[in-house]
Amino acid sequence: MPSTADRRRGRPPVHEQAARDARIVAVATRLFVAVGFHAASLDAIAQEAGVTKRTIYDRIGDKPALLRAAVTDVHDYLEVEARDLRHACTLIAAALFADRAVGLHRAAVAVALDDPAISRAFYDAGPLAAQRYLAAHLNGDERRAEHLFGALLGEPHRRRLLALDPEPAPTALDAHVTAVLDAIA
Question: Which residues bind DNA (predicted)?
Fold first, then answer.
């Protein structure tokens, strides 16, 4: 990373802004997972990302906004046009059973009673967005999507949250998706 003296003055080009924003979100995600939401200070995020706190506030927002951005980043599959319901379920399971997503889930739950805004940010950017993604493959049926989402995560995800199981291999995820879809058919 260039020193402050080596940096150009003025606004960076759009591609540099996007890379900087992605770096901020990646650092925030890593710290939220490693030390928890409250312990991950904006100072630490700014320092590790090589930006100022003002840049974080200007580009992304406060800590709940950073959590929302981190959760949105985990749910990047939402930008993928799934071929069918099975593909949508596979994309969701692959994202949500990953260590990064499980860590963010733990961080959000740990502070849920202290700050309802954090819970809302997490839920809206994560589970609710995933359910709407599924609903698009269920003729808009949000109730069925909610049930499918619950079944898709279920006990295997709870075991992940409790650190009882490691991140599953793709073959295990595929078998899980198949079992869930067979059960609801």
Answer: 41-60
- This prediction has a pTM of 0.82
Find where tokens 């700014």 sit: 46
* Burial profile 66-78: b = 16 or more Cβ within 10 angstroms, e = fewer: bbbbbbbbbbebb
Q: CA-to-CA distance for 86 and 134, rounded, in angstroms?
A: 10
CA-wise closest residue to 38 among 140, 106, 93: 106
Smallest CA-to-CA distance from 89 within 158, 174, 171 is with 174
Q: Which two tokens stand for residue 104?
A: 């963010």
- With CA atoms as reference, report the closest residue to 150 among 139, 134, 166: 134
Q: Write down the residue that tokens 């997972």 correspond to.
A: 33
**Whether 84 contacts 137, CB under 8 Å:** yes
- Say how far apart CA 97 and CA 6 lie, in whole Å: 41
